[in-house]
Amino acid sequence: MNVTFFGDLAVEFEKSVKETKESNIAIIIASAKVNQHEGVICLNNYPATRFYINPHHHSVKKLHERMLDPAYCVKPEEHVPETTPPLFSVEDIKNLTKDFIERKVRCQITVKRVDEKSNWYDNVCTTCGYEVTIVEGRYRCVVCSRNVPFPDKRFRLGTLCNDATGLIAIVFPDDEIQRITGKNAFDIEEELADEKIFPPVLKDFEKKEYVITLIIGERNVSKISNIYNATDIADPVEVLGNHSPAEAEDVKLTDDIPPMETPCTKTAPKGSPTTAASTNKVRSRDKKTDISYALEDNVPIGKCKIPKTDKRSRVHAFVPYNLADQFEAIIEIGNLYLLTNFTVKEYTTDDKFRCLRKHVQIVFNEETQLDILHENVVNVENCCFDFFEISELHTLSKQNTYLTDVVGIMEDHEPIRKIKNRNDVIQSQFVFNITDGSSSVRVTFWDDFAKHLADSLKQATDFPVILIIGCARVTTWGEQVVVTNVGATNFYINCNHRSVVELRKLLLEKKITSKSLSTENRSAVQFYKLESIPRLGPDHVERQIFCKVKITNFQENKIWFKTVCTSCYATTVKLNSEDTCQGCQRVVQYPDKQFQLVAMAFDDTGYILIIMEDREVKKLVGKSVFQIGEEGTKDEEFPPILNNILGKVYTLKIRINSENVLKKSNYYLVTDIMEGLYLEGNQQQ
Ligand SMILES: [Zn+2]
Ligand SMILES: [Zn+2]
Question: Measuring CA to CA, which residue among 404, 406, 398 is closest to residue 475?
């Protein structure tokens, strides 16, 4: 059982153990506190706790005796270091007996030919890693019984290799191909101009010599299959050092292999080609099985099952509350770390909202160390998801064991709003739909997370926005399936994940259309002259436009900030000289202070009044309201630093609201500001 001592007792204990001469240490811990930590029982010290090392006590004597009794004592499993597998010739490998099943052997071979007739990758399930099949034109994992909208791609590289003693068919493992080429299957697919071409980088394995570690399968020994799976691929020079090429050169690398040795024959297709309805989800390449390239025992290598690897996968790590501050300071998303001394814990049925569909998670403890690695020693993708299809989300809405990753195109939506919930608490709520072209789902985000998304969307440049929601909770509201946020949920706006690239491509090719998607590219910079802005019609409500102005003066130079409620962000009012939020009906003791300036903006056609809020003013003066206050400016004084804004030329982004259009309000809200002139787009006169 786990014992954790703290403080002086821990120091004293460590010292005593070091001073002990005996190799077998028995310890009596008296008056320990029995605790539960992360669901595991452990002992801790209290002020009354004492320890005794190998004391003269009958219990200790008995314990020492019993430890020698094999019937009583279970030796902890010894860690056997992996020995280097034996090096065999190809001929020997083909004659291995069943003692070698599941064991590793090595061989030194030359890659004679790479199999170009089969697909060079498999589409695999993002949850379980097994190959997906095509059902009704969609990728489906039969193991997980669900659709996999964006399957992973894993290399499948069949090779024909030889040494002086014979020929052998070897399937190269995905992770080793990645390590050697420095690319994954997606990278290579992207580089290929024509999907019918076999990737040259994979062809580069040909005519080269390697020391390959194979794992011998039962099917190999029983001669059902003569295709061997490799686990490691190494350069002979770096492995064997004293390598002499003389032996290898004796091999005649001609194509005139005697019939008995002929490894590959072209055969007519055995079954009908995979029949998959052609949709935009499935590439034509997946159906290319008209010629199968078979090996001597008629196992077409194209049909050979590639073993799944547990490399390149994800695991959830949990940092307990008491350690959160310590680790939060170190962890930065996107960095690579070496993690040591952690606990691996199986999930229990009580563990809800799991980020991943795995049996175990990593739990940090007091001993856990996290060291940043500056060199990218392993090829880790920046972001990794396990997407579910939007049409299948309803199957997840009745459970709360797992969280879910979804990707979709944001449909037109209302801005974030504040609502009063049934407990009379004001909450921020952001409601919108996302679609993948065939189905759409309601998304409802709450409070800070909703605000964070709404703020981040202001920076988006590609429209419609393609949003990835990682670790979302799928639930129902009435009969409707709703995607919502919990603590672990995060979002990615127009990120460069392949799913986003693919959706964007389908949008451009007009394969996804929906009347609720903005057909117009709202990011196109549309500049307006000021005189035309008051004439904009209702179709411009909630639209953002650009204009180039000179800011000449502030309309009001007394009030330059507003106080807002720390719960609901509404502007507070003074009641009995106390800042009060009318929405929350409470005194806000330390309200937030945010800039709010009204200024006159001119161009050569006229002027408008603009409202600049906190983010925009901070951007211009580089200070917050609080910082200006700390520098000695009193709340009722107008800070001179703000006058620096005046007299300059700016490019403004303005959001037209319904007041502007319907009530002809002349106050326009600035949503972004930049000093100088932004590149000119279509000028609207
Ligand atoms: Zn699966
Ligand atoms: Zn409030």
Answer: 398
Closest CA to 572 of 556, 587, 552: 587
Distance 137 CA to ligand 1 centre (A): 17
Instruction: Please indicate, yes or no, whether residues 43 and 154 belong to a single structural domain of this protein.
Output: no
Q: Over pLDDT 90: what percentage of the chain?
A: 22
Same domain, 106 and 244: yes
Least confident range from 244-253, 412-421, 599-608: namely: 244-253
Q: Are residues 329 and 394 in the same domain?
A: no
Whether 559 is in a domain gets the answer yes
Q: Of 160, 164, 161, give the one whose Cα is nearest residue 247.
A: 164
Strand pairing partners for 613? Answer: 596
Whether 171 and 56 share a structural domain = no
pLDDT at 514: 58
CB atoms within 10 A of CB 594: 18
Collect residues with CB below 5 Å from ion ligand 2: 565, 567-568, 581, 583-584
Pairing relationship of beta strands 440-446 and 426-435 according to DSSP bridges: antiparallel
Same domain membership, residue 675 and residue 554: yes
Residues 6+ apart with CB under 8 A from 87: 105, 106, 107, 108, 211
- Cα(427) to ligand 2 centroid in Å equals 9
CB 667 within 8 A of CB 598: yes
DSSP letters along 476-519, please? EETTEEEEE--TT-EEEES---HHHHHHHHHHHTTSS--TTS--
C-alpha 140 to ligand 1 mean position (Å): 8
Query: What pLDDT shows up at residue 301?
Result: 52
Give the model's pLDDT for residue 58: 79
Q: In the chain, what is the straight-line distance between the N-terminal and C-terminal CA atoms, in Å?
A: 78
Contact of 153 with 122, CB cutoff 8 Å: yes
Complex ipTM, two decimals? 0.53
CA of 277 to the centre of ligand 1 (A): 21
- Here the CATH number for the domain that contains residue 280 is 2.40.50
Which of the ligands is closest to the CA of residue 125?
1
Q: Tokens 């030889």 label which residue?
A: 162
Which three-class secondary structure state does DSSP give residue 132?
A: coil
CA distance 156 to 172: 7
34 token code pair: 């029995």
| CB within 8 Å of 251: residues ≥ 6 apart | 110, 162, 163, 164
Average pLDDT of the chain, as a whole number: 80
Among 82, 83, 87, 93, CA closest to 106: 87
pLDDT confidence bin for 304, thresholds 50/70/90: low
Domain extent at residue 62: 2-67
Whole-number pLDDT of residue 73 = 67
CATH number of the domain enclosing 466: 2.40.50.140
Same domain, 262 and 117: yes
Q: Do the domain assignments include residue 308?
A: no
Domains of the chain: total: 5
Same domain, 291 and 335: no
Residue 40 placed within a domain: yes
What's the gap in Å between 615 CA and the centre of ligand 2?
Answer: 20
Closest by CA to 517, choosing from 433, 458, 391, 457, is 433
Q: Looking at the structure, tell me whether residues 677 and 563 fall in a common domain.
A: yes
In a domain, 311, yes or no: no
CA distances 76 to 1, 343, 568, 650, Å, are 13, 17, 57, 72
- 589 C-alpha vs ligand 2 centroid, how far in Å? 11
pLDDT tens digits along 438-471? 888 999 999 999 999 999 998 888 888 999 999 9
